[in-house]
């Protein structure tokens, strides 16, 4: 049953991507729908990282001793200032590791 669910989700994701990315298909979204879909990626990403950063132990943890929060703040600042994904990833991961080990 699990394998069937995985295969069904694979087919669904592939078809939904294929319909919009295949240039020979006449299916096009209007500009309003395209503008609306531009917000979906940041929304999904925020829904993934926000609980991890602010609630790592299933309770709100807003303090300077929260390594998740410090790592996220450093990563956001580095991404904003340098616009370098690799540097941001490496520095924030090393900082997070150092904070977790201490």
UniProtKB/TrEMBL annotation:
Top-rank taxon: Bacteria
Q: Which InterPro entries match?
A: Brnchd-chn_aa_trnsp_AzlD (IPR008407)
Residue spans crossing the bilayer: 37-54, 61-79, 85-101
Keyword line: Membrane, Transmembrane, Transmembrane helix
The name under which this protein is listed is Putative branched-chain amino acid transport protein
**Naturally occurring in which organism (per UniProt):** Vibrio brasiliensis LMG 20546
């Amino acid at each position: 049953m699990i394998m069937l669910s995985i295969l069904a989700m694979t087919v669904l994701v592939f078809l939904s991507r294929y319909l919009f990315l295949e240039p020979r298909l006449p299916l096009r979204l209007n500009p309003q729908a395209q503008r609306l879909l531009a917000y979906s990626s940041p929304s999904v990403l925020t829904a993934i990282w926000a609980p991890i950063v602010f609630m790592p132990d299933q309770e709100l943890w807003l303090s300077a001793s929260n390594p998740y929060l410090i790592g996220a703040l450093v990563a956001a600042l580095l991404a904003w200032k340098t616009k370098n994904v690799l540097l941001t990833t490496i520095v924030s991961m090393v900082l997070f590791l150092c904070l977790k080990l201490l």
